[in-house]
Amino acid sequence: MDSFPTLLPPVSGCPRNRGKPNPTPRSWTYLSWHVRRLREDGLAKSAFGDALRIIAQGQVGPGIGTQFCTYVRLFDQIPDAEAIMNGTASPEPPTDIDAAWALVAALVGHVPSAKTLRHFVEYLPKLDQNLQVYAVRSAVMSNQDRTAVTRRFEAPETKPAWNAWCQANKGFLGAIAPHEKRHAAA
Question: Is the Cβ–Cβ distance between 116 and 155 less than 8 Å?
Answer without folding.
Answer: yes
